[in-house]
Amino acid sequence: MEIAGPPAAPPPVPAAIRALAGDDRIRAVWLNSLGGLTFELTAADSSRRFAKWAPVGSGLDLGAERVRLEWAGAFAAVPRVLSFGSDTDGDWMLTAGLPGASAMSASFQSSSERKLLAVRGVARGLRMLHDTLPVDACPFSWSVADRLTAEQISVDAGVDPAPPVDRLVVCHGDACAPNTLLDANGVVTGHVDLGSLGVADRWADIAVSAWSTEWNYGPGYETAFLEAYGIAPDSERMRYYRALWNAT
């Protein structure tokens, strides 16, 4: 499994991002597995904006994320879209910064106690998101059927049929630890990277978010995650939604 993360070396800055930045300091903070980049733009007064870049041919759909952010922003702390555009090299989206830092920031990697604080913060933040976003008002789907259809995955791929739905919620769609923002005390301040947000069984998020604790903090944190979310382990649903994640 290819894991996204901070770029190993500063990447070239697309011309569109330089234009958006103006006099702001530009720092690449994230590189995803499809070649998309996120840049932090810091002004002289220390205020921050973030510019996401999707190069042509990457398959990333920033337009889909834009409409989801605009919808979710009425109910939860997510980035506010400032502008959006395209050129011959790719697409970009500029958002206002949120308070807090990624649950994967150095502060939360400094000790096992800080890692545990972050894991619990991520779990509680996910539960808050699931309890807050209104299912009946959500125009987006992240259901098993839609995901399999979108990726043209055959039912013979070992990820169908799905287990019965436990509880429908508006899922984050990529609830891995880096996409939760926390304050210094591990309290959630926001959620980012919502390009797949949509209605689905809550285990579609829970299974992957709990799994991401091992990728991002090391083994031994999954139980703490589930306890902080407030749910008992469900091996069948966790196994299924992790297989689906890998397949799509």
From TrEMBL:
InterPro entries linked to this entry: AGP_Transferase, Aminoglycoside_PTrfase, Kan/Strep_kinase, Kinase-like_dom_sf
Origin: domain of life: Bacteria
Gene3D superfamilies attached to this UniProt entry: 3.90.1200.10, Phosphorylase Kinase, domain 1
Keyword ATP-binding: yes
Keyword terms, alphabetized: Antibiotic resistance, ATP-binding, Kinase, Nucleotide-binding, Transferase
UniProt cross-references to CDD domains, sorted A to Z: APH (cd05150)
Pfam assignment, any one: APH
Residues annotated as domain Aminoglycoside phosphotransferase: 62-240
Family: Belongs to the aminoglycoside phosphotransferase family.
Name assigned to this protein: Aminoglycoside 3'-phosphotransferase
